[in-house]
TrEMBL record:
The lineage of its organism: Bacteria, Bacillati, Actinomycetota, Actinomycetes, Micrococcales. NCBIfam families: Gln_ase (TIGR03814). One of its GO terms (molecular function) is glutaminase activity. Its EC number is 3.5.1.2. Keywords: Acetylation, Hydrolase. It comes from Cellulomonas dongxiuzhuiae. This is Glutaminase. It is an enzyme of class 3 (hydrolase).
Amino acid sequence: MTRSVDARSYDLDDLRERVLAEHGGAVDDSIPQLASADPDLCGLALVLTDGTVRHSAQADVPFSVQSAVKPFLFALALLDTGGDALDLIGIEPTGEAFDAVKLETGTGRPPNPMVNAGALLTGALVDGDDVAARDARILRGLSAFAGRQLDVDDDVAHSEHLLGDRNHALAHLMRSEGTLSVGADDTVAVYARACAVLVDARALAVMGATLACGGVNPVSGERVVPTDVARDVVSVMATCGVYDGSGRWMRSVGVPAKSSVSGGIVLAAPGVLGGAVVSPPLDEQGTSVRGRIACEALSAELDLHVFGSR
Ligand code: GLN
């Protein structure tokens, strides 16, 4: 029996019930819209490489994508710069929090595209002469990954822009190092809008599946990014996607992933499936507590660990 057959009959509502019994973690309070999230929201979705979509209850409840957007911003920056983004941003794990106000020693580059410094820069590198043009390009690209039109929650974007002091600090730091050529405030505005894009577990799982399928959206059939871009993005998710928890994640889940402060996690198991989980209470590294438990269970029960026995 192949793993994809297992995923086809896997009971995601049963997994949802199992993880809902867990009660650790705390909802992010960096902006009011995240602080008021329902701590008992829990949705899961899997998208197989043949385009089959499996989901639990609440997989259609919208939430802001937050840092789960970072792999896709990196993909768009690689695409729009013809790969030059790889010279401008590092790809090494930091062992630090996602919003550390720190750049690579010596180069002044962001350490990797999965922390805020790197994501601010990838948002600035996508095509577009101003905030509105880059915002539109990002929304178009993210929608292609999701296979449906996505929208920005303007209130969330406004709060992120207003309250994201560390992001403003990082943008100014990159300006002072000569790493960032566009305006600092515009850079934060574009990043804030990218973080405020509304997804649900189902859409986020399709986005992950597009990376897992080498850049082709398995539901729409559209090639969104070239194979080498998808490979680069998934490689950096594997090493840096869960910030200073990336090593532990790789050992216990073993599937390239990106966490976010809204409690979403996107998974990309190359050649096998994409997945997403959302549950807002977070651990100290900003990873969904139930999301981690769900991903560990999915990995074990569907034999997804990239270094597993299979
Ligand atoms: N918008 C959030 C921030 O910049 C995203 C962080 C995250 O999800 N880890 O700070």
